[in-house]
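Lab notebook page, bench 4
Experiment: in silico fold of construct C2
Operator: M.H.
Input chain length: 104 residues
Purpose: comparison with the prior construct
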Amino acid sequence: YIVKNYFKYIYKYIPFSFRPQYEYIENSNIDFIGRMENFDNDFKFILNKFNYKIDIKNTNISNKNNSNKNSSKYINKFNKETIDFVNKFYDKDFKEFNYKKIYI
């Protein structure tokens, strides 16, 4: 209940803060969407596509094992109602960007 009400308040006054991501690319001619989970490969793809030669150094990156442990801590703080709300509100994002929903 608190999450939904807080969310509705924020969305009313600062709508861009929780805006579904698909709305940013809707009706555009985007042919590639990179993912943070695959940053190195996706960034290399873009560089090659535009024939750029840049060396980027990744800093402040958690290793994969720590990352998974940290994200599971956040999930444990959400109840079923909150997860269901997020799954429903961002349903089109999950579908458009091929991400899996979480269920408890």
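Observations: The chain has a mean pLDDT of 82. The chain has six helices and no strands.
Next step: discuss at group meeting.
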